[in-house]
């Protein structure tokens, strides 16, 4: 049996003003009918570009396909027939449904648009068909969804809407470009399950582009690993995961946060000293609209959180977006107004004596942020940024600042020459290291890291996590590590705090929480994490196609 | 349609702005050096008239009382008398609104008719010859002084070609329209330069946006992608830009009316300044300010209609 | 997205060159006007207010490249001398509003609260008036003249800078690097002047250029109306006003001063666009 989609010797070159680089090199790949092929790689590997090339939608005019053929059911396809094939035989969904759905056109019209164009349906027939599709992808009230706009739905529902748009004209192939990356983990599980169900029901073939080997392990039949514009390895899922040939594949698998390594599990810390942070019934409310003539409304970001953090401990705070975990971090550092409750840091009560406590916090606690580029002042060099902190702290004599900067860069594994560079000329991982160096410049007893690896590639993630582990071992630092990624927390933190809707749902030693979660929410959250082991199936979230209907 | 409920409540928010406007216009006239009574009545006023105006405006009372009198008079539609035309300022303004309003409407409509096609041409052939031409002309066009552009249009269309009247305003609607074409075009050309640049930028961003990519990925032809997805999204910021520029546009009518001797509010204001007819200057400034507030309100309504995401 | 990340790292020479040609062209135009203004006494073919009654309304010729006006004054000489006044209008008319507006915007954006609310209400009211109408009203009080124009500019022009800077500061305040500075215990002054303001100024630098165009046009328009620069001083707006009565006989008196305004404005616009590209600012 020949493959449904065959890519042979495909190369893409970037040309601009005499500069020329090959972004895709001699790529050959098959997609079998009804299979889900996972295309895995880190940013810059060319995985998205490959799929864009296949459907003839190059992201830039400086890119040209220089060699190779693409055949669909044995027929070679060219640029000219592409417009007819797109949407009709090959559908595509994207990472960010919010930006890919037209904000000023109803969702229904966007589905009907394709039906009217490709299938020449009447307006009435297209509407009926579109409503059917919306029901199929899990909208509880498809008639209403038809007339609604994208912004009226949550991220998960928007992604469902985009799937409905892509499937409108019944394509045989669906290309899904990081379809779950922007979603919470429980929603991710739902969308992946939806894709698998649609494949089973419609006989769809799917190319699933992702950076997460866990997603691939859970949903794909075959895996192709890309790096720097080449396919380095390809094979059946289980075989490839069990016995990776290429060193890069091995590195990717090793870096995956669900991989546990011997000695990783941190031992629980004795709670014999006074807590470094004591948080009691902390509430933070934000004003949310209202005001003139309309009743004032409030958003309760934190609804009575109590927590102790002991010196030398590594605490993970996990939760989905909107759970209040970042607000908690900012509140205990005195960066957000506290509505009620009490926070004390090393015995100083922030809510009672804010001035002294803040001064104490400035010298004893530091923060590391999510977006490494945004966290550093773009106009200052790394050296200037670090020197500013050292000078403000006032503990390093002026003559030794230079040496201290060198030491700090050493500690975070950056070459000393980076002192003269600005964030713009550095990679995300390097900026994050600089951000950690800035936190260390305070010489803090506690570091609060807010989603500090979320924006990084897995291999870089693994490096940063290793750096933290090393720093903790060497300096006895207390770490509060906030993340949505449970797998990372599991390997790094000895204690886990699970947050949901502004409250703590469950807390306890990592080993216990991950093995025997007591709360249903924690269990669902853990089960939704796509494990790299295909035999630990995806379990989180609710089954979504119960409102099944005949089509 | 609760998204449109702001139409009922928003006017209440105008109250502080309207107060501010009234304070500024009040203060403006009071700051003029000299006896306020003579400023209000002109230099050749009779003593009885001066005594009357002193009582009416409470000119011997403290400043805040005078302001209250001013508000009271304003509420009664009493804006004083023009010393030049010898009639009530409100009536005078009423007779001058029509040409100015016609000019503004004509300017906006013509500007959009010019800007949309040129921006579309430019954006869809980005980097091409047409694009460079449009960019050059629109960048230069921002710097065209309207008084000079008007003079050049007169030179070309009225003097050389003799197609259109040089200046003034007609009696019949057709006559009026003929008189308004050149001044309207003057305003439209300046405005269209700004609009073209903004629309072009919006369209170019739209053409490479995720929305366009997604539409192409479902096989929509390029024309559909452009007119049904790119243009509607680019129009929202353009309406806002128009609202922001409305003050500039109204200021433009002041100059253009002077160039073409159109008997509108702008010309009235300039004449008022020269003949020290301060009540007229005050009245016109007040009228323009209130009009600007109302036009911005209209722009808000249009924006809400164009973009379902916006809630006011 | 994978591909854009790759192409971003590539040096964009062509784009860079294109930007530079724009910047070079813009700066060249501005520089030549500055030179003309400085060297006017030596460059101009004759005195700008010298009236040659034997040479009235002469069309452009070798002796008078831009012709002469109804008083027999050389138009080229007047255009060159006009550069002095019109450049001065564009510079002074921008500098004071910029300084006041930046100050107010920074304070309002950084401190928020009632200070911010008060300034925002004032700005709302000022913006409710059409710009030129408010300018004319103020000039009515002060009396016509260039000095009145500058005072009116300073009173009215700051609002756009204040709004721009305030908006920038509000956005920058929530950026992680500003939160980081706060969490590290930096003083308010340090956060404001070292971290927020330098990043906010990039946007207003671009705005300065487009504002210079508006100020130039307004200054010329107010002079055209007879309320700014007074004759017989050579100023381009005044020249157009004086020429209007002769437009049927002598087009050149109107054309050339207008072209001078257009060219100078173009210089500012080009420089502004090039700066916007270089600094990555979007208006």
From TrEMBL, chain A:
Q: Where in the cell is it found?
A: Cell inner membrane
Q: Which UniProt keywords apply?
A: ATP-binding, Cell inner membrane, Cell membrane, Hydrolase, Membrane, Nucleotide-binding, Repeat, Translocase, Transport
- The organism encoding this protein is Rhodobacter viridis
Q: What class of enzyme is it?
A: translocase
Q: Which ranges carry the ABC transporter domain?
A: 7-253, 277-526
Please verify whether the record's keywords include Translocase: yes
Subunit and partners: The complex is composed of two ATP-binding proteins (GsiA), two transmembrane proteins (GsiC and GsiD) and a solute-binding protein (GsiB).
Coiled coil regions in record: none
* Task of the protein: Part of the ABC transporter complex GsiABCD involved in glutathione import. Responsible for energy coupling to the transport system.
> Which membrane topology term applies here?
Peripheral membrane protein
Q: What is this protein called?
A: Glutathione import ATP-binding protein GsiA
Automatic annotation (TrEMBL), chain B:
Span of domain ABC transmembrane type-1: 97-303
Name the source's superkingdom: Bacteria
Single GO BP term? transmembrane transport
Which parts pass through the membrane?
12-32, 100-121, 133-157, 177-195, 238-260, 280-306
UniProt KW keywords: Cell membrane, Membrane, Transmembrane, Transmembrane helix, Transport
Q: Which PANTHER family match?
A: DIPEPTIDE TRANSPORT SYSTEM PERMEASE PROTEIN DPPB-RELATED (PTHR43163)
The entry's protein name is Peptide/nickel transport system permease protein
Automatic annotation (TrEMBL), chain C:
Keywords for the protein's UniProt record, in alphabetical order: Cell membrane, Membrane, Peptide transport, Protein transport, Transmembrane, Transmembrane helix, Transport
Q: Which residues cross the membrane?
A: 89-115, 122-142, 148-165, 200-226, 246-268
| GO (cellular component) term, any one | plasma membrane
Q: Which residues form the ABC transmembrane type-1 domain?
A: 83-272
Extract the InterPro entries matched here: BP-dependent_transpt_permease, MetI-like, MetI-like_sf, OppC_N
- SUPFAM superfamilies, alphabetically? MetI-like (SSF161098)
Q: Which organism is it from?
A: Rhodobacter viridis
Its membrane topology is listed as: Multi-pass membrane protein
Query: What is the protein's major site of localization?
Result: membrane
> Which domain of life does the protein's organism represent?
Bacteria
Q: Where in the cell is it found?
A: Cell membrane
Give the signal peptide as a residue range, or say none if absent.
none
GO terms, biological process: peptide transport; protein transport; transmembrane transport
Which protein family is named in the record?
A: Belongs to the binding-protein-dependent transport system permease family.
Gene3D superfamilies reported in the protein's UniProt record: MetI-like
Name of protein: Peptide/nickel transport system permease protein
